[in-house]
Specification:
CATH architecture of the largest domain: 4-Layer Sandwich
Shape: elongated
CATH superfamily of the largest domain: Ribonuclease Z/Hydroxyacylglutathione hydrolase-like
Number of helices: 12
CATH topology of the largest domain: Metallo-beta-lactamase, Chain A
Number of strands: 21
Strand content: 15-25%
Amino acid sequence: MKPFAIKEDIFWIGDVDYSSRDFHGYSRSPMGTTYNAYLIKDEKNVVFDSVKAEAADTMLCRLARSIEPQKVDYLVVNHVELDHSGALPRLVEACKPEKIFCSTMGLKSMQGHFDTSGWPVQAVKNGETISIGKRSITFIEARMLHWPDSMFSYIPEEKLLISNDAFGQNIATSERFFDEIDRDIMLHAMKEYYHNIVQPYAPQVLKVLEEVGKLGLDIEMLAPDHGLIYRRKEDVAFALDCYKNFALQPWKKKALIVYDTMWHSTEKMAEAIAEGLVAAGVPTRLMCMKANHHSAVMTELADCGALIVGSPTHNNGIMPAMADVLTYMKGLRPQNKLGAAFGSFGWSGESVKVLQEWLTAMGMEQPVPPVKCQFVPKHETFSQCYALGEALGAALTARCEKA
């Protein structure tokens, strides 16, 4: 396994996981993922982050083809989550470093995950700088992007920011740089990653971006720990702008209908609501939970200002797949969305009320009354569904124009 030079004497020594489809047990990685680690060779040789435990041999092989592991002086642990630190015990054993740097919260996390007795761990403060020879490293706290221990490492002489999980993407490819892949593909990967992992911490994202701005960092290369590296200044600016926009969650004139169905009644209602939204000039996407994972729903919702949810009544509640996606969605805290509910039932009919409660719990205003249908929808129900879509589309248009 060869290392990959990203700058003079700076190497990528990570792992490409082409088979990954389940990311951390709650999200999907349909294009695979990478676990990025980096080596800087200087008077003090430094390894930044590591990989998951299963990929330790790959990382150590790349490292050994760059430098004898015993010549690594420092390890920097920007984040202790196991996909970036699982191989850390193997790395410590191979390198026997003089120092292991982490954030103050990282020290606690490291001690919780590993037996660190005998490890030369040193917690660094926000803004602290160390010299490694021709270069220096400034450590920047990035708490809750997306763990309390997260931090960035900035190398001013190289205008390089190693950003750990922030600005990452789940994509497995032989290319190492962002500009080598179609930008639309990369933007989708960025959205998929952010809106399923980082989104709950939008206020902290804005705070960290503000801090980076205040520090006046000159960043020409941005190296995350998942996905591809931004090596052009215009791509770095694109990544920073995307994260600001992702965090602000502005109103958007697009609607998403998420539903499950038992005997197709709720499905037919969803299609009629979509027709009404489109007639009101609002592009609309339908996603049935029998065919979509909850992480795909969150990626789509990123571009939508209206969420319409539907379910038949099942055991006096909603369908299990709808309970799953709404539980997941609530934890990710989407903002600036209008909501609406609909559903069918046979005898008790609680589903619509349950759906409305979920929307309320997520802070979504519901300007249009819900539509309920007993048994099979007929012309009157379809008319009501169409009218719901039309009215919600008009409300969303007005909200977008006002924003």
